[in-house]
Amino acid sequence: MSIRTTTRATGLGGRLRSATGLLGGFAATSAAHLGSILSGASVLQNATKPALMPLLAAHSVAAASRAGREAPKLLAPALLASAGGDVLLQLKNDTAFLAGMGSFAAAHVCYVTMFVRRGALTDRRRALVVAAAYATAWAGLVSQLWPDLGDLKVPVAGYSLLLTSTAVTAAGLNWRTGLGGALFLLSDTLIATQIAKWRELPGHQFWIMATYVLAQYLLASGTLQHQEHPEHQERPERLEPAAV
Hints:
By secondary structure, the protein is mainly alpha-helical. The protein has one domain (3-231). Helices cover 77% and strands 0% of the residues. It contains eight helices and no strands. Helix 1 (3-39) packs antiparallel against helix 8 and helix 2 (42-66) runs antiparallel to helix 3 (75-89).
């Protein structure tokens, strides 16, 4: 075996261990966080939540590198913007809540842009059907929540529309991202019912975070899975005219 082959194999092994280790770290931190919610261990809960999305972002970069590719440009920013939202929402005041909502809005802009560039709306008929279904659900939910949202009516309605756009475009990529978008919408719907002071489910906070963590994992892993097919590479922002 040549030195070059040995070096290449060693590098591949290192990337494989790195990606696997980061995914294991994300899974362990997620389990610890969810367990802390059930047990009421607030210190552990506050310590683990900010680490979730950075670990998933690092895993996504390492997994793409393992496959010999660069990670989708907007995937890590989406996850890190979500991490910013996670931290801000822990502060539990109105200003921080609005700032956290803005951070998550930035994450959804990244997701929507990334999915559209990857051809999520190519099948226009399917996209219209999915969009119509989600728009109907969004309108029904907002109309029910509206009287109980107080001063947050407009921010919640605007943010939820952007979140719905993520769900619509995610559905156009593959089943993983589609399910991830739906679960993200479910997670934030549970938060909205808290804001409106509706009756909470047993283990309400647990279900908010369980659906959120799974949603983000599915969005990230589904995007990486989609990237494995060369015909689904990101579209360039600008196409140069072909030479005649």
